[in-house]
Each structure stands twice: as C-alpha cells, then as structure tokens.
Design goal:
Length: about 240
C-alpha cells in the first residue's frame, strides 16, 4: 500500500522502471513548459459511475472503422500498410475487448483538421482516423497508409518523425492510455524532442514498430507489428498529450 497526497491508501501496482516514461516537463518539447503540473498531483477517487458506466461496445463499431483506406469513394494516396499487434498487460497476458483508436497525418504529412494549415495537400479519400476492439488474444489490426513527416514549429526547422497516434480504453472510459507508434529507421529520431522525452533508450525502442514480413500482404501492403504493453518492465511509453 502507498499513501497519496490526499492521505488515501491505495493498493500497490507494478510500476514502470525509472526512465521508461516521459516526464511531464521536458523543456525541449516546448508546450510541456506551460502544461506540466507545478504542484503535487491529487488522486481523485473513482466513483461507481466512472467504473461501471457504458462502454463503446462492439455493436457501435462500423465494419470499415479499422480500414482507413476504405472510408471514402476512392483510395488514399500513399504506401498502403497493415499495422497489427497485441495489447498485453504487465504480465504478458492479452487484454481483450480494449478499444484501440488511431489518428494520423496523410501520406503528405497533413492532418485533416482545421488547426493543421501547413502547405501540404489534403487527401479527399483520407480522414486519418480508425478504431477497433482487441480480440480474445489481445490482437488488433488496421489498414492505412504510411503517414508523412510534418513540420510543427517547436523549434527552428522542427519536423516530427512519421508516427501514428494510439489511444486505448480499458474497462472504463477513465482507463485511457495514449502513445505514438514510429517507423523503423526514421532519420528524424535524434532531432525529435517528443521521441527523446522518454529518457531510456530501450523504452524509446518500444515505441518503434518493426517491419513484419508475416503481416505483409503480397502485391498489396507492407506489414508492421506494434505490441503495446500497458505496465511494468516492458511498458510502452505513454504520451501525456495527444496534440502533435
Ligand atoms: Fe501527430
């Protein structure tokens, strides 16, 4: 048991090793200077409603929600890819029925969002959002196109490495985790403050998908594998903000 700032006793849980998660304040990632908490966090107890409230069930998901290349009249531009993996808990057990959501820029590095006004073309056949539920083995699968790198004005000549944002919901909407998936071999890694806000090298590697010949579909799409571990020694580093 450990004591919080409110004096409540809470059960202990498997903590992530030091350096495997990004700090709230990472000055090179400029917006953390304003949003990082300046006072100790206060634990708010969950009420019954938050834990037992309705979830987005399987019947709410559309047939093509997992396929970002088939949500419009035509196909989007770019390299078609399959991104799949498993969601695992800290003991390596699969997490079934987790809602996995993704959002990303198009192949030219532009989000279909009014805030993104950088001069790269929008793609009328690509919204860049998808979702699915994990299966009994914790598995998920998306079909999409490889996102482009994009500039983000954090510092002079700042470009984000290509990435896909991931959000996971557990058994309640209060159980949400957010992270980013990167692609192997990206030359922008050493220059990216968000990627490098995770101190531990091995933990940074866990944010990088691996090219997966077995997930590659001949004559059709390259495959990438990205397993997400929720907690513990092998935990996937989390992204405290989801705006970049
Ligand atoms: Fe992004």
């Amino acid at each position: 048991m450990s004591e919080t700032t409110t004096g409540r006793q809470v059960p202990g849980y498997r903590r992530d090793p030091p350096g495997s998660q990004p700090p709230y304040l990472f000055p090179d990632y400029r917006s953390t200077r304003l949003r990082a908490p300046s006072r100790p966090l206060v634990l708010l107890p969950h009420t019954l409603t938050e834990v037992t409230g309705p979830l987005l069930g399987e019947d709410r998901l559309g047939e093509l929600d997992h396929d970002l290349t088939r949500q419009h009249q035509g196909e989007p531009h770019g390299q078609r890819i399959v991104v799949s993996g498993r969601v695992l808990d800290g003991d390596g057990r699969p997490v079934p029925n987790a809602l996995v959501e993704v959002w990303q820029a198009n192949a030219a590095g532009r989000y279909a969002h009014e805030v993104d006004q950088h001069p790269a073309p929008l793609d009328p056949n690509f919204s860049g959002v998808g979702r699915c539920l994990t299966g009994a083995d914790g598995g998920y699968r998306f079909v999409t196109v490889r996102p482009g790198a994009y500039p983000w004005r954090n510092h002079d000549n700042a470009w984000r490495p290509a990435h896909i944002h991931f959000s996971l919901f557990g058994r309640a909407f209060t159980q949400r985790l957010v992270t980013q998936m990167y692609f192997p071999g990206d030359p922008l890694f050493p220059l990216d403050p968000i990627f490098n806000s995770v101190p531990d090298e091995a933990a940074r590697q866990r944010m990088i998908a691996r090219f997966d010949p077995d997930a590659t579909v001949p004559e059709w799409a390259l495959g990438y594998r990205f397993d997400i571990v929720l907690r513990g020694r092998d935990a996937t580093p989390l992204d405290e903000e989801d705006d970049r």
